[in-house]
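Hi,

I'm pasting everything inline rather than attaching a file, because the server keeps stripping attachments. The sequence lines come first, and each chain or strand is labelled.
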Amino acid sequence: MFFEGPEKKLELAVAPGGPSLRSLGRPYWESVVRAARAKILSSIEGEAIDAYLLSESSLFVADRWLTMITCGRTDLVSAVLKLIKDLGRKRLRYLIYERKNAHFQEYQPANFFDDLKRLRRAAPGKGYRFGDGDDHHLFMYHLDRAHVPDAGDRTLEILMHGIDPAAARIFIQGPGHTRDYIRERSGIWDLRPGFAVDDHLFEPMGYSLNAIKGPHYYTVHVTPQAIGSYVSFETNCLEPGPSRLIERVLSIFRPRSCDVVLFKPSGDGLRARCALPLKSATRQVLDCGYEVSFGHHFAPRVGPAPALELSA
Amino acid sequence: MFFEGPEKKLELAVAPGGPSLRSLGRPYWESVVRAARAKILSSIEGEAIDAYLLSESSLFVADRWLTMITCGRTDLVSAVLKLIKDLGRKRLRYLIYERKNAHFQEYQPANFFDDLKRLRRAAPGKGYRFGDGDDHHLFMYHLDRAHVPDAGDRTLEILMHGIDPAAARIFIQGPGHTRDYIRERSGIWDLRPGFAVDDHLFEPMGYSLNAIKGPHYYTVHVTPQAIGSYVSFETNCLEPGPSRLIERVLSIFRPRSCDVVLFKPSGDGLRARCALPLKSATRQVLDCGYEVSFGHHFAPRVGPAPALELSA
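And the predicted assembly:
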């Protein structure tokens, strides 16, 4: 009945020297994904990035960095601990683990405070909460190591809650609702031109898309369930600018509320503007060299809505 | 480390005839409170209402109705089931159970969907959610029985999240922070004139107040903890008008956000206005004769806040 859309996410980079992460091969990445209690469903290989589409979200592996995103009841921390052990803590340039507050925290195997204890036993790090605890918020851990991100090393996340039912319907299986239909009708294949795309339509609903081009990726995960509907969009390709990108993505899903998360090198003047009213904003420079901003926005409504009747 | 301030609440009334609820006596009410995993700490007897101050919140018992509010990790549904059995389902005029979304749902013994199953096995009823599932929301069950509330049968709840630290500090034990200090400095003893008051300052922090006068009560529960700070105010005495009352209560606690919940007879034109901007509003006429409105409001902030660093 309930599916947990909001994700956990890992991003890490390794220092130059030693084998490329991509060269570790698919069986190795299968074992990492398995540690998180997920499976690889398909993959595409790009010039600079291998993109794995998972039973719960996505894994992008480049030579020197990786991003792994998992939803549902996955245990991403176990995969993080395996990676720290296998790659060697000293080889890490940075490691950031984040976790959005869940819709149904009571069905999760652990909360962020549990995660933080496990991570800190393996590698000293700092823990943060972006946003108020009683409201939409993002937890974050980062390895306690100084790092200077490259110029242009930016990531944008748009986390959307309460998707417009007409937009959500496109991602629910049914007569004619194939991947081709989604490709033509949803608008998410065309967010950036020239990307290689891999996607998966889940039974009976749910949809994931991975897209890569050179050193860039974008990914979309749709949880269209009426209770707990959610979509995440993430990319490291900020063309044609984060504000334009936010506008395009929001116009597709028309959510009741959304979080906008921007990672950029500390001192980078880039701003991500969202046209929806802001409920709360948090900004923090991390000791690992990134400045992270988190804003929660909402779509104003006219007049009160009726209560939702819950079936027996 | 974490205390769950947001409450569960029961309100029920019995048909005329049969013994008064007050006449059931303190040992009986001790057994009801125990069923919810709480204890009676003290009590005051009024003209029309007995007010019990509990280890987790409050119980008000009049001859024909009662209101029971419990916070923390209590199991209020067990007390509700005991009352349905002891009083007899047929004798109930109405029964409403509600539950605010928790700050730390993972530490609760059950969620509302579990509650709803147990309640419906004992008495057919409807379930509702006021507000979006990913946002502040209120769950509600009511016995499926037609009822016509008396004119003026109104209840106002103000549920406040993220209390101003200076306001919260008054309710944390320390040198000079006695009940008398709270009485003089907090402003909550003077919310309505002429009420008999009972209160309790918890170790090491937390504060509860029960106040009664004739057929009226008001109650305040303060969770001043830095993580998950929360205050609830509830009353069935809407003088000098709900909007004035909201303004006075908010001026004491200056929360980052609040929910305003108003119960009134269906068709009653009363409105509760809150000066803070509205994020979302829900209104529903229940088959048991009440119209319930739920609004979530927030205090606008200027500029982004820093992230909260979480200690090891």
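Chain B has a mean pLDDT of 96.

If the labels don't parse on your end, tell me and I'll reformat.
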